[in-house]
Amino acid sequence: MISHTRSEDSSRIKAQIGRYAAPHPNVKLINPPVDVKSRDKMGFNHPELCALMINVKHLQDYIKDPKETRAKLLNGTIKVTASQYPAFLYSGDVPGENFDATNIVEGLLEGYLPERVRSNMFYFVR
Asked: The organism sits in which domain of life (predicted)?
């Protein structure tokens, strides 16, 4: 039952990923649109979602050469672990674009995505 509930809850969110992930959803959603029926176009396989989820330390490499950096992610050369901060936690229209490795807390949790999620959570709690 827990697995079914989790699956059902997340399936409703998938259709909204394009709105949450876009920096200015009223102006432009992410491109290409998120295909909720196909997993091969989501996550690290989606160009804009990959830029959000990549470790912020590798974001500049991804911006310079997305194809090669995505290949390194998929083959395990670049590790994705819970101890590394994803770019979406940082501020900027491209989250993490102003990341400073000497001060990793600068801009942390100030991105539009955490703010959008927080505001919607409190909206539903009311």
From this structure: Eukaryota
